[in-house]
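Students often ask why we bother predicting the structure of a whole assembly rather than each chain alone. The short answer is interfaces. A chain on its own may look different once its partners are present, and contacts between molecules only exist in the joint model. In this exercise we take two input lines together and write out one structure for the complete complex. Read the inputs first and try to guess which parts will touch.
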Amino acid sequence: MGIDSLLIPAVMFFALGVTAKLINSDLKFPEGMTKGISIYLLMAIGLKGGMALGKADFQLAVESIIWATIIGFILPIIGYGLLRFRNKINPFDAAAIAAHYGSVSAATFLTAVAFLEMSGVTYESYPIVMMVIMESPAIIVGLMIAAFTRKRLAAKEGTGKVKTEWGPLLHEAFTNGSVVVLLGALIIGATASPESLTKVMPFTQDIFMGVLCLFLLDMGMEAAKKLDTLKKAGVTLVAFGVIMPLIGGSLGIIIGGTMLGFSVGGTFLLAILSASASYIAVPPAMRYGVPESNPSYYLTLSLGVTFPFNVVIGIPLFYQMTIWYIGT
Amino acid sequence: MSIKMCTGKSIQIVINSTFENKLIQILKKNGLTGYTQLSARGDGESGVQDGHSEGESNVMFIVLASDNAAATLIEELNKYRNMGYHIFVYTHIAEVLNSDKIQICK
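Now the answer. The structure tokens for the assembled complex follow.
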């Protein structure tokens, strides 16, 4: 599997989006369209996962949820440790960036699903549930690290107690739009009658890949926009944007293949989840919860570095690594 | 016939949309229950704010207030600015016609 893996429409539309921006095309999506498309994609993948989950093994589903929570807590801690190594990145930026890397990117996951479906590789439904679970723990870790940093700095500077408003922050972590749509669609898919679900399939499955192409076209334009700010981010952060997905992806392969006993398809999807960085759910949570951090860093890294890296290099690389790790 | 206008401040506040609910709370706490809200795009230290995602959307609030209420509001907003929130505040002297409806004239 070489260049072929890049020749799927979704990846090619991503490249088209990047090209459009680089040649200064006036191509632009109408306001609100991307948000609408992302709700559709989350709903469609949630329904699909829910339908499969209805027939899945309960014990393995519970184990998947537990492992998703563990990964969600471990990855941001690893990320924070890496970023704070040699004290180059300030603790608030490090906490906010690490939170992005502990959470997940639904677009990267969906591109990986497209890759498996085009390659005729089957996969379990559990990674879809894991995607829902993995959205939130990293936000909590990021907020906690920032709160501890604030407390430490206040004690050092003798400025008195610093209060963190946890209520609205935790509310945001657990009720952000993508979690609600995904979890809701999963439950609907698992509990609605199969006959009634076949009626919505033309909308949720038949046109899914086409809509994903549109979404990736927009993501390509957004990623290219972030290229300008790469210089500002600096070499250390850009290197982190490539190294962290490699660490996360490898951890995902080990947990998917060994701890959960997933097939190649399922393990690969867990690797992609662990390698991806959020750019929908986490940025608003960090903007509000960690206002001391610079948003241009985490948005540039997750959308301008890690997302393109995963789509172009990560997907074929993690697929090969999965095959190597658990065999065909 | 001369029309009576009352004088006060027009306060323009640019914030990230994630701070919107908090700002509304602050305004109400200060007795400023009326405001105009607009979507705002721009560029600056936080990067391009083009409304593409929730973290990259700015909003602008225009609030009319008496000089005293404006000073109290700005003082409170400054506390949040010191906490790291990106808040831009501009004021202008405003002459307002709707004197019966706006806090500026009460």
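Check your guess against this: Residues 83 and 89 of chain A are 6 Å apart (CA to CA).
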